[in-house]
């Protein structure tokens, strides 16, 4: 019995290679059988009630434009749907026309399901499915054909544009905070005091071979630090923490709307079937307690042992990342020493900045190289773990990659924010690592170095990624088409332009294989971490993220429609474990920003000094300590950054400030998390309109099924 029809076999000669194209389709009875088998949902009735929310209504009444609104062109109608059953075909909309009853994407799902589970050899050796035939190069490709691009573009903009739209208010507020920092550069009393100090503050040498230097020499660097370290960043940290919570709550609402509109609301709980690869390679079968059917099974003990092995690989790769981090720290220190020995006045003056900037660029290069290596390893490990469903497979793969990428991308900013300059010691009693003095923050503090590190890593990665997304697909497509260039024929020679008239399957075959949306999601999640976890150090981060996403949405649209083959549609109830990761990042951001403001920023020391003295006059002198007498080898005394006495012991102000810092962390964390929980409670995850639609849909499905059962009983 044939289940697939082979239409229009077409042979094309490319040099010495002959490519045969076969267009597959399924007859009506096969479509109906497998639609019921894989639980496809089909329309019962058109939804006429529009979905709206209270915020849209308020803005409309106040005549305020809704900048978060998404105007999607050519939006298809929404339907009440239920699972397809052949015996109640007449209850479904459009059942009169068999050619259009099933959507094109549903036909693709059915055909791929048949091809994915059809054996072509020994079942014991897992010789099952079209995917393995392609991977073993028996077939060169298997793909659906592109159609009109408008619907694809609409769905792409609907999902990606939500996050980008929410970046707009964050970018505006961050830019205002940055302008406030520019105003402080001109008016700040402490900055004016430092710049006009002349030779008043002679600082201790920065290394064993370095000379004394005047604090006034870093006037411009200190003022630049005020762009990122000021009172406005405290407000912005609170704003971004609440922004992240609100964004996730509204994303849940949008996700529930989309999952219902795309018939995926109950996909994972009821409909998801085992992966074809799992079905082919599972060593045994067991009876499903829910359906009663025999299903492939992989022992949990074996999966657990494989998972533990995979976790050991993750730990090993994380250790490699930390080794590279230590190597870059040593690189910065050694490069600074080399520059100081060069006797070049210009380079000596900028030694710290040169070492820091080149170290950041080197760190970015290492990050990108390790990312590619580990993503490849994670694919192999996750496939080896034998997960039953596609959702479980993707969640395991995503979690592996995110844990590594989290350490890979954020380890250097975390070091600068919370560890750099904490274990330096003081003149005469410096701490060392491998015989080299521990790295210290510049005289203007660590926050400006953290801002530099964030901009280099985040913006640098975005620029490199966008260049790759624009250039690499075009180069790959050109090379692929060059290899597939057909042999010259008399008809081609006679044509005026000399170009062959390609059929749709030939034109689609010349496109690149679509590798999914994993890289896009990972890039957005890492970006979300940069603009929330370290936002206290760089209020411009959301602004740069907004610009990047505005460009990337257009690059992705062009790439997926014009450069890639059409992928087979896959259903998912939501974004899966990505949402859990985003929640984790939002909670971590509250804690991170609390410690950044308390221990890395100068906000609390400035506040404490203003409260105890009544003004900011003398603040620079307050932050500097005098080196112990045994450190200086002449009559000259020098200063260093810290709150210590002439013997190197912490002063009373140090302990007062420490208590204030710890209290601020606790208060900040509890207040922000409490407000976040209130927002979570106030914003329901599923809009009321969607809940009503789901109940209405269940009622209509039961009514249709009951009517069919009555008819069968009568007959």
TrEMBL record:
Q: Name one GO biological process term.
A: calcium activated phospholipid scrambling
Topology class, membrane: Multi-pass membrane protein
Pfam families xref list: Anoct_dimer, Anoctamin
* Single GO cellular component term: plasma membrane
Nucleus: present as a keyword of the record? no
- Which GO MF terms are attached to this record? chloride channel activity; protein dimerization activity
- Anoctamin dimerisation domain location: 14-148
- Signal peptide limits: none
Q: Where in the cell is it found?
A: Cell membrane; Membrane
Where's the Anoctamin transmembrane domain? 161-697
Q: Which residues cross the membrane?
A: 160-184, 232-251, 313-334, 354-377, 397-418, 525-547, 575-599, 619-638, 658-679
Family annotation (InterPro entries): Anoct_dimer, Anoctamin, Anoctamin_TM
Q: Which UniProt keywords apply?
A: Cell membrane, Glycoprotein, Membrane, Transmembrane, Transmembrane helix
Q: Which family does the UniProt entry place this protein in?
A: Belongs to the anoctamin family.
Protein name as annotated: Anoctamin
Q: Which organism is it from?
A: Cyprinus carpio (Common carp)
At the highest ranks, the source species' classification is: Eukaryota, Metazoa, Chordata, Craniata, Vertebrata
């Amino acid at each position: 019995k044939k289940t697939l029809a082979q239409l229009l076999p077409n042979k094309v000669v490319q040099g010495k290679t002959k490519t045969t194209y076969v267009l597959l389709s399924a007859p009506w009875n096969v479509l109906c059988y497998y639609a019921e088998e894989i639980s496809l949902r089909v329309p019962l009735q058109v939804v006429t009630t529009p979905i709206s929310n209270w915020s849209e209504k308020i803005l409309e009444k106040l005549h305020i434009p809704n900048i978060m609104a998404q105007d999607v062109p050519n939006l298809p109608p929404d339907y009440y749907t239920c699972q397809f059953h052949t015996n109640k075909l007449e209850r479904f909309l459009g059942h009169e026309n068999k050619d259009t009853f099933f959507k094109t994407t549903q036909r693709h799902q059915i055909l791929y399901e048949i091809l994915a589970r059809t054996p072509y050899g020994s079942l014991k050796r897992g010789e099952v499915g079209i995917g393995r035939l392609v991977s073993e190069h028996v077939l060169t490709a298997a793909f659906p054909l592109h159609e009109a691009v408008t619907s694809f573009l609409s769905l792409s903009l609907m999902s990606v544009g939500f996050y980008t739209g929410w970046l707009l208010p964050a970018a505006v507020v961050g830019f205002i905070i940055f302008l406030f920092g520019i105003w402080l550069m001109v008016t700040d009393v402490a900055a004016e005091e430092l710049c006009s100090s002349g030779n008043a503050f002679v600082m201790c040498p920065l290394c064993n071979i370095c000379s004394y230097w005047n604090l006034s020499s870093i006037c411009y660097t200190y003022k630049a630090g005020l762009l990122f370290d000021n009172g406005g960043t405290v407000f912005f940290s609170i704003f971004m923490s609440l922004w992240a919570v609100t964004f996730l709550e509204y994303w849940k609402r949008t996700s529930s709307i989309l999952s219902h509109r795309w018939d995926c609301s109950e996909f994972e709980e009821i409909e998801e079937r085992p992966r074809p690869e799992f079905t082919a390679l599972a060593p045994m079968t067991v009876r499903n307690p829910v359906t009663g059917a025999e299903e492939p099974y992989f022992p949990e003990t074996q999966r657990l042992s494989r998972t533990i092995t995979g976790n050991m690989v993750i730990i090993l790769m994380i250790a490699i990342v930390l080794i590279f981090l230590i190597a870059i720290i040593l690189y910065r220190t050694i490069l600074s020493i080399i520059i100081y020995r060069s006797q070049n006045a210009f380079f000596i003056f900028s030694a710290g900045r040169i070492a820091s900037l080149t170290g950041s660029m080197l760190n970015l290069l290492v990050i990108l190289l390790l990312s590619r290596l580990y993503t490849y390893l994670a694919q192999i490990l996750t496939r080896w773990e034998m997960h039953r469903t596609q959702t479980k497979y993707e969640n395991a793969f995503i979690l592996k990659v995110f844990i590594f990428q989290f350490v890979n991308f954020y380890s250097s900013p975390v070091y600068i924010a919370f560890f750099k300059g904490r274990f330096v010691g003081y003149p005469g009693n410096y701490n060392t690592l491998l015989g080299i003095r521990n790295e210290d923050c510049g005289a203007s503090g660590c926050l400006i170095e953290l801002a530099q590190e964030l901009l280099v890593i985040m913006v640098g990665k975005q620029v490199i990624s966008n260049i790759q997304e624009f250039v690499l697909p075009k180069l790959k497509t050109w090379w692929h088409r060059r290899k597939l260039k057909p042999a010259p024929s008399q008809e081609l020679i006679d044509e005026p332009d000399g170009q062959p008239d390609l059929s749709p399957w030939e034109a689609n075959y010349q496109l690149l294989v679509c590798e999914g949306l994993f890289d896009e999601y990972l890039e957005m999640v890492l970006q979300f971490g940069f603009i929330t976890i370290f936002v206290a150090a760089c209020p411009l981060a959301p602004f740069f993220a907004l610009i990047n996403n505005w460009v990337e949405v257009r690059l992705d649209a062009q790439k997926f429609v014009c450069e890639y083959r059409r992928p087979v549609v896959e259903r998912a109830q939501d974004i899966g474990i990505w949402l859990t990761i985003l929640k984790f990042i939002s909670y971590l951001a509250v804690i991170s920003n609390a410690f950044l403001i308390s221990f890395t920023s100068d906000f609390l020391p400035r506040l404490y000094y203003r409260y105890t003295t009544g003004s900011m006059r003398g603040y620079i002198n307050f932050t500097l300590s005098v080196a112990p007498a045994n450190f200086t080898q002449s009559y000259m005394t020098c200063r260093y950054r810290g709150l210590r006495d002439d013997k190197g012991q912490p002063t009373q102000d140090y302990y007062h400030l420490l208590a204030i810092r710890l209290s601020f962390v606790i208060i900040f964390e509890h207040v922000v998390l409490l407000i976040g929980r209130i927002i979570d409670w106030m914003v329901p995850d599923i809009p009321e309109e969607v809940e009503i639609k789901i109940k209405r849909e269940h009622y209509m499905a039961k009514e249709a099924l009951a009517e069919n059962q009555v008819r069968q009983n009568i007959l």
